[in-house]
Design a protein that fits this description.
Layout: H1 2-9, H2 13-25, H3 61-72, H4 76-86, E1 89-91, H5 95-106, H6 111-139, H7 146-160, H8 194-212, E2 232-234, H9 247-252, H10 258-266, E3 273-275, H11 286-293, H12 297-301, H13 320-328, E4 335-337, H14 344-358, H15 361-364, H16 370-376, E5 396-398, H17 407-415, E6 422-424, H18 432-439, E7 448-450, H19 459-468, E8 477-479, H20 492-501, H21 503-506, E9 512-514, H22 522-528, E10 537-539, H23 548-557, E11 564-566, H24 579-595, E12 618-620, H25 623-628, E13 636-640, E14 646-650, E15 654-656, H26 665-670, E16 673-675, H27 683-694, H28 723-731
Parallel strand pairs: 1-2, 2-3, 3-4, 4-5, 5-6, 6-7, 7-8, 8-9, 9-10, 10-11, 11-12
Antiparallel strand pairs: 12-14, 13-14, 15-16
Length: about 725
């Protein structure tokens, strides 16, 4: 053990960091998805290609976190290398875990205690930085005594008291020398974030030493707080159910509050991804939204006049200026997922945010009182019109199920993100005018779009958006899902125009498409629609007049790479009253022609094995039809989700990417292969069989053909999710 430890100690820090980075990257979903849930994680093996269902293409989150935590316990060198990656992604799961995060990142939520901790931290950091500076002077041959240390301390304090470094004077005073009287009036603490304090002290010490000794380097003080490492924060798995709390405790003693969330967000200057759910949307207050959205370039652009001839001079007494200066040094958010956030607190806060920062003041002031107009008036010497606020760093936005937002709030918010690539507006109140305004944007280039059950949209607005708007030219994933409750607003003529003229259909780059409840006909599929060679997941549910033969012919001739097909309450053959006739039609007209290899026979040589005409292996069906199928037929089994959805799955099929026993070069070059003949003892087939035997008692991440777009990692409608997001994507029938 001693020799092993000595070898590890000889590793350079850069090598340890690279090793930890690879451990973290092993838990990220691959760019090419297998479309299957993460199973067989306990089986050894490394995939030789992508996509890969077996071996698993990536590690589970728990394995990555445990591995990094174990590395932190090896020695100090490994701890310093693994800590940034261990804190890079935070998923809040339990209330007590959230309180621990608040304590570790923000120092708790007690204002008095936080201020005392900040003052102690400033004093300790000053001492450490000055000690490092004196040591640097010693290295260049200068002697340093007590007088030199006192002189350096005075110069650093003078530098920190300057106008360009905002540290409150009370934090520079030792706690023991403060006035202990509790009666003195005091305003709410406006102490800068810890990372900002550390940076200010480092800059001040370096500046003082640079003036006395040009070119000298002083190492920055060590910051033990992990907030600067966090890139990802989400509450997807957060629950308070089962804690035996009364209704009064749930209302008055919440775990996730706006103040705690603001305190944490202030300590995360490098945050890029944020996810919220309906279980904590009451904490999304106006200050929280400002901390989330007014970061980076959004704060750097605020206050900029629309014309260069006037200069806006901010009021130095404005309490918002300190927060504004701090947010300017933060990174822009790249992704925000607000799925299902409908609480009154969140809706009111978002309305206030939009009215304050996004709407034209000349329009919003016309309906306000004189006092309200005076409060919104910019605090500057020269009153000039400012440029509209935009968020150029935002790439992915999820607003699925945010039904409480009115169009005059929802649409300005969406239009404020000029560089979106992923947008989920399913089940919202987006209007035709809002969709047209989004299509008129010269900078939006959508790759994934979901307009599921948007009952305020018209068929003409959807047609114009997909056919004429440059924002949809590069679409690869499109969901226009509808059902009996909220059917598609498209007419047959409008759908024909979309399929024939929309660039996303013409270029054949679609990988996910859902036209459920749209008036799809045999002619549109076979004569109008272009070939879709990249299409992997296709939704054609709730279309009773579409013949099953037309779907089969379309898959065979134009979309033979489709692996997942949804036919819930579709086609006359599968919607008949007799369940026996429906099950026979399913196997004889759909599964056998598309999923069975062609028959071949030879008397002189071994017959060559040919692939089936298509890659179809998963079919989503209505619950009554699944019940009539019983236990399935052959290798086809029924797998039910945690909710009301269910799929008819070929358990003997899956993407296998493991070294082949065949030594031929052709077999070695394949890498990843969609096998249709997995033996009963194969681990992947056994996992699917166990899911079928579970009869719906599965995790929320089990399912196919997601209804919700994956926002946080950017995987879109082909992404995998668990927790509440997974339930929305795979479990809920609506």
């Amino acid at each position: 053990m001693a020799s092993e430890s000595s070898v590890v100690n000889q590793f350079p820090p850069e090598l340890l960091t690279v090793i930890c980075a690879h451990v973290y990257a092993a838990g990220l979903p691959p760019p090419t998805s297998s479309l299957d849930p993460l199973l067989c994680t306990d089986q050894p093996g490394i995939p030789t290609g992508l996509p890969s269902s077996f071996p698993a293409a990536y590690w589970p989150e728990s394995v990555v976190r445990n591995t990094l935590a174990s590395l932190c316990q090896v020695n100090k060198a490994w701890y310093e290398a693994a800590k940034p990656w261990l804190w890079r992604k935070i998923e809040i799961r339990l209330p007590r875990s959230w309180l621990a995060i608040v304590e570790e990142v923000a120092g708790g939520d007690d204002e008095d205690v936080s201020e005392e901790q900040a003052a102690f931290m400033v004093d300790q950091t000053l001492r450490n930085a000055e000690t490092a500076a004196l040591a640097a002077r010693t290295l260049i041959g200068e002697c340093s005594g007590d007088d030199d240390a006192l002189e350096l301390h005075d110069k650093v304090l003078e530098r920190l008291s300057g106008p360009d470094i905002s540290i409150p004077p009370e934090l520079l005073t030792p706690p023991a020398s403060r006035d202990p009287s509790p009666r003195r009036p005091r305003t709410k603490s406006k102490s800068p974030a810890r990372w900002k304090l550390m940076r200010s002290i480092s800059v001040a010490v370096q500046d003082v030493m640079e003036r006395a000794h040009p070119g000298i380097y002083v190492p920055p003080p060590h910051d033990p707080h992990p907030g600067r490492f966090v890139r990802h924060l989400d509450f997807n798995h957060f629950r308070t159910i089962g804690m035996r709390r009364s209704v009064e405790e749930g209302v008055n003693n919440r775990f996730v509050t706006g103040d705690r969330l603001v305190a944490v967000l202030k300590e995360l200057p490098n945050l890029l991804v944020f996810g919220a759910t309906e279980y904590m949307d009451g904490a999304l207050t106006f200050p929280v939204l400002k901390e989330l959205l007014l970061r980076g370039s959004a704060s750097r652009g605020r206050g900029r006049p629309s014309r260069g001839r006037d200069v806006v001079i901010p009021d130095p007494n404005d309490p918002e200026q300190e927060d504004l200066a701090r947010r300017r040094e933060c990174k822009d958010l790249e992704a925000v997922d607000l799925t299902g956030c409908v609480s009154g607190v969140f809706v009111s806060a978002l309305a206030q945010f939009v009215n304050t920062f996004l709407l034209d003041r000349s329009e919003s002031d016309s309906s306000d009182s004189e006092d309200e107009r005076e409060r919104r008036r910019p605090r500057s010497r020269n009153l000039v019109q400012e440029e509209s606020l935009t968020f150029p760093g935002m790439r992915r936005l999820g607003l699925r199920g945010v039904k409480s937002l009115q169009p005059h709030i929802l649409e300005p918010l969406v239009l404020a993100f000029p560089h979106l690539t992923h947008l989920d507006l399913s089940c919202t109140r987006i209007t035709p005018d809002g969709l047209a305004a989004l299509g008129a944007s010269p900078t939006v280039r959508l790759q994934s779009l979901a307009l599921e059950r948007c009952n305020w949209l018209t068929g003409e607005s959807i047609r114009n958006f997909l056919v004429e708007a440059p924002a949809t030219q590069d679409l690869r994933e499109l969901s226009l899902y509808g059902d009996w409750t909220f059917p598609s607003p498209l007419s047959e003529e409008q759908l024909r125009d979309i399929v024939e003229f929309a660039p996303c259909f013409k270029n054949g780059q679609l990988v996910y498409l859902d036209l459920s409840s749209a008036p799809v006909t045999r002619e549109i599929l076979l004569d109008v629609c272009a070939a879709q060679p990249r299409l992997r997941s296709l939704g054609l549910s709730y279309i009773r007049n579409l013949e099953l033969g037309a779907i089969v012919e379309f898959l065979r001739t134009k979309a033979n790479n489709v692996e997942i097909l949804t036919l819930v309450s579709s086609t006359p053959e599968l919607s008949v009253a007799s369940s026996r006739q429906a099950t026979i039609a399913l196997h004889t007209q759909l599964i056998r022609p598309l999923c069975t290899p062609p028959f071949s026979f030879s008397l002189t040589s071994k017959p060559k094995t040919e692939d089936p005409p298509t890659r179809l292996r998963i079919i989503e069906l209505a619950p009554p039809l699944l019940t009539s199928l019983g236990a399935g037929a052959g290798t086809w089994r029924i797998i039910r989700s945690k909710g009301g959805r269910g799929w008819y799955v070929d358990a003997a099929s899956g993407w296998v990417a493991q070294p082949s026993t065949d030594s031929s070069e052709a077999a070695a070059e394949k890498g990843s292969v969609l096998r249709r003949d997995l033996e009963p003892s194969h681990p992947w087939r056994m996992e699917l069989e166990s899911l079928a035997d579970a009869n719906g008692n599965v995790s929320s991440g089990v399912g196919w053909h997601a209804r919700k777009m994956e926002i946080l990692h950017g995987d879109g409608l082909l992404g995998r999710e668990a927790g509440l997001y997974g339930a929305v994507a795979f479990a809920y029938q609506g």
